[in-house]
């Protein structure tokens, strides 16, 4: 994991920051991984869309204590940006089995997305029309309050690290 000074500054200024190859992931984050994760842990999973026939986007809540690598990401970002702790801060997984488009939405927290499998486009509406293609190992920072949507170009898995507290800079 490496952040350059200009990337840190963008995040401190609450601006979108896309980092290609943020982390080298050796583990394979596929549906076998998700099945094993759910089998071994008591985690909550819900569909975020309701299309049926496994055409939904699914969310697995609070995985940081189940996967050491995700806890490391969470701790690293929390310390770098000195977030005030909030009980809702956590790492969640989102995945889909087919290409999917999420609804446009605004998150109430700062979100760091790390690509684990597949390609996801993040499209933003409140600024210039720029699409960011997040693939395995890439990271994008989405500041709270910024309207966006995720477009999965193929089956995908992403880690979403959310911080509800303010940055103490």
Structure, described:
The chain has 169 residues and is α+β, with helices and mostly antiparallel strands. The chain has one domain: Sandwich (Jelly Rolls). The protein contains 3 helices and 11 strands. The strands form 2 sheets. A 7-stranded antiparallel beta sheet has the order 1-9-6-11-4-3-2, covered by helices on one side. It has a 4-stranded antiparallel beta sheet with strand order 5-10-7-8, with no helix packed on it. The longest helix has 14 residues. The mean pLDDT is 93.
Name a few traits of the molecule.
single chain, 3 helices, four-stranded antiparallel sheet, alpha+beta, Jelly Rolls
Taken from the alpha-carbon principal axes, the silhouette is globular
Overall structural class, as computed from helix and strand content, comes to alpha+beta
Poorly predicted regions? none
Largest beta-sheet details = 7 strands, antiparallel
In spatial order, strands of the major sheet run 1-9-6-11-4-3-2
Taken together, the total number of domains comes to 1
CATH level 1 class label: Mainly Beta
Helical percentage: 10-25%
Q: Superfamily at the CATH H level?
A: Cupin
Oligomer: single chain
